């Protein structure tokens, strides 16, 4: 079996463009599917898929580890977010090919089942971008947390901290506490609430936010400061009883190692669309397991990435919980078919060969690439703020 071509399909899904990767083979009808979605850098990733993909055309797609090394090492300059996203999507598609060829679901190739069901967590509004990123009303937080609970979820993530300066005054702390209190009221005491700071501030300010949030018992505090600030994240971890999660913007196990060595995180959040695909994320999981750290992969992306993560979760012993954006666009299930059904906040093991999903190309074409650019925030004095 040989790889004959690698191509991309781009689908606009409001906030982001999904980038689906197709690896075609000379076995009639056998094509692998992956996802390489990267916000606001779509054209760069599509170009990188073309550049990296040409290195493995003509090769046997079943030699996944060998092809990963070719794509990672032969370009000489390794590992930026764009090239690693491209590699990640291709790597997922190679796994899809191999498991389709063998006639087994992906989790079987990854080592078999380590659990019989996988816990999922929701976002406010089911992941609709206006509910997740643009709503800071106390009433909305309570209502939408209660909605997630009614829909059967036992965990939900919120952004209780909005645009924030390196140091803020009392009003910002009161606002964060009010939003957290509202979410807790809507969710109830038996529902877990994750709080994402989105790396929007410094460790000094994150520590203050953690202190006002702590009485409401967040399940974890995500990305309290910028991802490269390992010592800052460790300072936050030492200052609070809230478990710290990080890693969505890291692309290799070497980038996770300083966090692990500093005891900075309790939960690792690599993204299978950025951190080297299944091949590298499995290495990250093993490394984290060595340090007693759980896995909760980052996944606000498309339905292919969601399914890949679900398979990974069923075969990874230190897997904790899986993020999902189930309602980011109302037509999600029209573009991709075959996804796992969430019932009572859990999914059961998929039984279809491969990743188990297919792209409806006609439906995808109804939502073409949209060059809307990144989210751009500024502080009151005009200086650049982190989104």
What does this structure look like?
By secondary structure, this protein is α/β, with parallel strands linked by helices. Helices cover 38% and strands 16% of the residues. It contains 14 helices and 16 strands. Helix 1 (42-53) packs across helix 3, helix 6 (138-150) runs parallel beside helix 7 and helix 8 (203-213) packs parallel to helix 9. The model has no long low-confidence stretch (mean pLDDT 96).
Through-space gap between termini: 45 Å
Sheet/helix structural class: alpha/beta
Helix content: 25-40%
**Average predicted confidence as pLDDT:** 96
User: How would you spell out the order of helices and strands?
Assistant: EEEHHHHEHHEHEHEHEHEHEHEHEEEHEE
Outline the secondary-structure elements:
Blueprint: E1 3-13, E2 16-25, E3 31-35, H1 42-53, H2 64-73, H3 81-102, H4 106-109, E4 118-123, H5 129-132, H6 138-150, E5 155-158, H7 170-187, E6 192-196, H8 203-213, E7 220-222, H9 230-239, E8 244-246, H10 253-261, E9 267-268, H11 277-290, E10 294-295, H12 303-314, E11 322-323, H13 332-335, E12 336-337, E13 346-347, E14 358-359, H14 361-365, E15 377-378, E16 384-385
Parallel strand pairs: 4-5, 4-11, 5-6, 6-7, 7-8, 8-9, 9-10
Antiparallel strand pairs: 1-2, 2-3, 4-13, 12-14, 15-16
Helix pairs in contact: 1-3, 2-3, 6-7, 7-8, 8-9, 10-11
């Amino acid at each position: 079996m040989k790889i004959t071509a690698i191509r991309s399909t781009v689908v606009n899904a409001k906030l982001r463009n999904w980038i689906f990767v197709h690896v075609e083979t000379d076995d009639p009808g056998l094509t692998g599917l992956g996802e390489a979605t990267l916000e606001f850098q779509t054209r760069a990733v599509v170009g990188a898929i073309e550049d990296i993909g040409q290195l493995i055309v003509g090769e046997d797609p079943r030699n996944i580890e060998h092809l990963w090394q070719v794509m990672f090492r032969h370009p000489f300059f390794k590992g930026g977010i764009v090239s690693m996203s491209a590699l990640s999507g291709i790597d997922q598609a190679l796994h899809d090919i191999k498991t389709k060829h063998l006639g087994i679901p992906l989790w079987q190739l990854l080592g078999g089942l380590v659990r019989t069901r996988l816990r999922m967590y929701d976002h406010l509004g089911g992941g609709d971008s206006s509910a997740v990123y643009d709503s800071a009303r106390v009433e909305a937080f309570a209502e939408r947390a209660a909605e997630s609970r009614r829909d059967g979820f036992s965990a939900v993530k919120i952004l209780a901290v909005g645009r924030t300066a390196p140091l803020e005054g009392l009003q910002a702390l009161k606002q964060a506490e009010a939003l957290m209190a509202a979410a807790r009221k809507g969710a109830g005491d038996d529902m877990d609430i994750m709080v994402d700071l989105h790396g929007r501030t410094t460790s000094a300010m994150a520590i203050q936010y953690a202190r006002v949030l702590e009485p409401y018992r967040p399940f974890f505090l995500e990305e309290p400061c910028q991802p490269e600030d390992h010592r800052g994240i460790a300072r936050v971890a030492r200052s609070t009883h809230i478990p710290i999660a990080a890693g969505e913007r890291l692309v290799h196990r070497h980038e996770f190692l300083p966090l692990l060595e500093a005891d900075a995180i309790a939960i690792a959040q690599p993204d299978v669309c950025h951190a080297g695909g299944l091949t590298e994320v499995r290495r990250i999981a093993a490394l984290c397991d060595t340090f007693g750290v759980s896995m909760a992969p980052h996944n606000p992306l498309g339905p292919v990435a969601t399914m890949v993560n679900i398979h990974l979760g069923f075969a990874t012993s230190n897997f904790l919980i899986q993020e999902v954006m189930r309602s980011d666009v109302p037509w999600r299930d029209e573009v991709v078919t075959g996804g796992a059904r969430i019932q009572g906040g859990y999914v059961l093991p998929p039984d279809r060969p491969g990743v188990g999903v297919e792209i409806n190309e006609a439906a995808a074409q109804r939502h073409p690439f949209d060059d809307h650019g990144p989210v751009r925030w500024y502080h009151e004095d005009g200086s650049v703020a982190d989104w």
